[in-house]
Each structure stands twice: as structure tokens, then as C-alpha cells.
Write a structure and sequence with these properties.
With 412 residues, the chain is α/β, with parallel strands linked by helices. The chain contains seven helices and 26 strands. The protein is elongated, with a radius of gyration of 31 Å. Bound molecules: adenosine monophosphate (AMP) and magnesium ion.
């Protein structure tokens, strides 16, 4: 049961607006080799140092000709050959043609390339059997990209769509934003790191593992401060160390109102709380604020809530701070619910679902099952969030709902 007055809670949109309006992107950038730039964010527009193509070349296998040599119908002897990487550089006698392959530089003076399918090779030379237009089958220098033209904007991630383009331009180094430094720790007397024996009453630390993994995928440098016990001195020391080393500090656990929940109190003492109660489910207790140097995000302890609030709130924060200008979550889509979905009004629900497209191309979604905030397997079974509006109650099978496909952080 939810005994909290939901009117005290701020909405997801308000929370995001509060977070994103306070922070400004990092200012530092560095120049790095293209070969190690995957996943990095451009710090400035990238301009082309060359024309692409760098020289006029043939779009076809065929024959390079001068239009003035094509008068009449007489066949043209072949004066030589031009290959990609081996241009024709001999003198080119009048009334001859040059055999040319795709990608080969156009011989000086040539007006057109005639494809070999439109040529007939005879003893006397090559006869052409189709009309010829000036410039045909010639790719001009700079036709694709002009030297000095901007090929990539600032603020985008370099990946398989961008880096080969830069390689094709001979760009060996690229100016990128420096990596974000993010400190992470879990809080809880019950937590044990994976790989250690588990004592009675202990559970394995899921959240630090999840957060570290997602931070690495987002290209952050992770400072792992381990598991912090539920006492104020240990927590204070962790906060102070994290604040001195990182741009962002992320903790999990201890943000609700239990007797061992000191996280918000510590943020109050050492910094400034911006907000800490959200009208979303799972994930109501999520603390955001500022320490002396670093931004602070206090994730809830329940693993589904921790992963969800990281995904929906921390991810956009890190994207902005890291210098992304075009970052977005996947768009929400309409789908028909195939299963009933249990919900009570008051909070925006992020249930985990499995969506597919039916034979008519319409989207359908079913629940992954138990939606408890400790059921982490719902992420590995699902491929989307089913986003149920704050005031909505339970959903019957057949109703239309919004889904939000998982992005690369959660995608199976
Ligand atoms: P708390 O917010 O600290 O009261 O934690 C809420 C619930 O999440 C409790 O059942 C905790 O045992 C559990 N929990 C807290 N931190 C973690 C963690 N790092 N990994 C797994 N479960 C956790
Ligand atoms: Mg705890």
C-alpha cells in the first residue's frame, strides 16, 4: 500500500527540468587519435581537410573520351589504361581513347566516360553505340564533400556511422569532450559484493554492479568506492571523498525514511538537496542535489528502482553534462495491451513489457509478469517500458498504452 500523499511528489518532467536546467556541459576537451575515439563525444564540429572525392574519377568501367574525337563514326584506338591507383599519364594522341576502370583518375582533357556495355571492341579500335553527354560517368572532385565543409556537428557520439567517415577524410585526430568522472557506492549493512560468501541476512550488491556497467557503457570513468555501511561517519567520509574526485556522485540505498536511511541527511549536511521524492513507480525516493564540487544522485535501494531512476533521470543528466547536444531516449509509441496491467493512480508507472508487431504491423505489448521493485529479471525478459500515466488506474486487456523501447543500456 502507498500511504504517501502523492500530491507532495514532483513529476518526472519537473524533476528532469530541475536537474537539466541547473547543470551546464563540461568545458574541457582533448584531442585524441581516431582509433581510440569510439564512444566519445565531439567537442567541436569536424571539418573536412580535403575534397571528397579528392580528384575526378570514373564511376564506371569503360573508356575515357574527348568529345572532339567522337566526330563521325570511326573507331578510336586505345592509347593506354587508367586503373584505380594507377593513373594514365602518357601523352594522349588525338582520335584515341583511354581504357579506364572504376575509381581511376580521369585523364587530363577527358570529357566523358563511356561504359563498356556501350562499346564494341574491333580490330580498328573501339566503336561507341550510344549518345554521349559531356561529364557522363565522371565523379567530380569535391562532389561529395568540399574541403572545409562541416561533416559532423559538436555534441554527438562517435560510432560506426561517424568514424569511418572521418577515416575516409584522412582525419587522424579528433577533438572530443573529456570523459565524465563518476563516483559510485552502495549503502547497506546487508550488502555483500558478488564473489564473497554470503552470511545470514545478507544479500548481494546488485546496484553498484548495474550502475558501474551502465556508466561504462555511457563512456564515463568510474570511481568505485565499494559498499558503505549504514553509519553516518562512514557515509560522510564516502561523500567527501567522492565529491573531491568526481563530477557526479551516485549512491544507492538509504534514501527513504527508515531508521538506517542517512543519505538524504548527508546531502543536506554536505550540500544542497534539490528534490528527493518523485511521483514515479518504481523509484519514489530519488535524491538529487549538489555537493561542494560534484552533482549528487541518490538512487533508491531496490534494484529495479535504482536501475529505472538511473535510466530515466541520471542518464539524461550525464548526457547533458558530458556535452551531448542531441541525446534522447527512444520515442514513446502506442501499443495495445494484450494482458491486464495492475496499477493504482498517483504515480507515473514504468512497468516492464514485451512488445511485438502483429501481422497487421500494429504494436502489441504484454507484461513481463511480477512488477515488484526487487524483480530484476523483468529487465532481461522485457524489451520496453510500459509507461502508464500518473492518474490512470488498472488497464484491461485491449486498451491502448504507451510503450518506450529500451535503449542500448537495457536492450537484450
Ligand atoms: P533502502 O533504500 O536502503 O532501504 O533499501 C531498499 C531495499 O533495497 C532493501 O530491501 C535493501 O536490502 C535493498 N537494497 C539496497 N541496496 C541494494 C543493493 N545495492 N543491491 C541489492 N539490493 C539492495
Ligand atoms: Mg539500506
Amino acid at each position: 500500500m502507498d500511504h504517501c500523499h502523492t500530491s507532495d511528489l514532483i513529476s518526472l518532467e519537473q524533476a528532469l527540468e530541475k536537474m537539466l536546467s541547473q547543470i551546464a556541459p563540461l568545458q574541457q576537451s582533448e584531442s585524441i587519435a581516431l582509433t581510440s575515439a569510439a564512444g566519445r563525444i565531439t567537442a567541436a564540429p569536424v571539418v573536412s581537410p580535403i575534397d571528397v572525392p579528392p580528384f575526378a574519377n570514373s564511376a564506371m568501367d569503360g573508356y575515357a573520351v574527348r568529345l572532339s574525337d567522337l566526330n563521325g563514326d570511326s573507331p578510336l584506338p586505345v592509347a593506354g589504361k587508367a586503373f584505380a591507383g594507377a593513373p594514365f599519364t602518357d601523352t594522349w594522341p588525338a582520335s584515341t581513347c583511354v581504357r579506364i576502370m572504376t575509381g581511376a583518375p580521369i585523364p587530363a582533357g577527358a570529357d566523358a566516360v563511356i561504359m563498356q556495355e556501350q562499346a564494341e571492341v574491333t580490330e580498328a579500335g573501339v566503336r561507341f553505340n550510344a549518345p554521349v553527354n559531356a561529364g557522363q560517368n565522371i565523379r567530380l572532385a569535391g562532389e561529395d564533400i568540399l574541403r572545409g565543409a562541416s561533416v559532423l556537428p559538436a555534441g554527438i557520439t562517435l560510432g560506426a556511422a561517424q568514424l569511418p567517415l572521418l577515416a575516409s577524410l584522412g582525419v587522424a585526430d579528433v577533438q572530443v569532450m573529456r570523459k565524465l568522472k563518476v563516483a559510485v557506492f552502495s549503502t547497506g549493512d546487508e550488502l555483500q559484493p558478488v564473489g564473497q560468501p554470503r552470511q545470514a541476512g545478507q544479500i548481494y550488491d546488485t546496484n553498484r554492479f548495474a550502475v558501474r556497467l551502465m556508466l561504462e557503457q555511457l563512456g564515463c570513468t568510474v570511481i568505485d568506492l565499494g559498499i558503505i555501511r549504514d553509519n553516518q561517519e562512514a557515509l560522510r567520509a564516502a561523500f567527501i571523498q567522492a565529491d573531491s574526485e568526481a563530477d557526479v556522485v551516485i549512491s544507492s540505498g538509504g534514501v527513504s525514511v527508515g531508521e538506517a536511511d542517512y543519505t538524504k541527511q548527508m546531502l543536506d549536511e554536505l550540500g544542497k538537496v534539490s528534490f528527493w521524492k518523485l511521483a514515479i513507480k518504481p523509484g519514489k525516493p530519488f535524491a538529487f542535489g549538489k555537493l561542494q564540487h560534484a552533482w549528487f544522485c541518490g538512487l533508491p535501494g531496490n534494484p529495479v528502482s535504482a536501475a529505472l531512476t538511473f535510466y530515466q533521470l541520471v542518464q539524461p543528466l550525464l548526457a547533458k553534462l558530458a556535452g551531448h547536444t542531441e541525446w534522447q531516449l527512444p520515442p514513446r509509441l502506442k501499443a495495445r495491451a494484450l494482458t491486464p496491467l495492475k496499477k493504482s493512480p498517483g504515480r507515473l508507472d514504468f512497468q516492464r513489457g514485451i512488445f511485438t508487431s502483429n501481422a497487421q504491423g500494429e504494436l502489441e505489448v504484454s507484461t513481463t509478469g511480477h512488477q515488484g521493485s526487487h524483480v530484476f529479471s523483468s529487465f532481461s525478459q522485457g524489451n520496453c517500458f510500459i509507461v502508464l500515466e500518473r492518474e490512470r488506474g488498472s488497464v484491461a486487456a485491449g486498451e491502448t498504452v504507451e510503450i518506450e523501447p529500451f535503449n542500448a543500456l537495457l536492450r537484450n
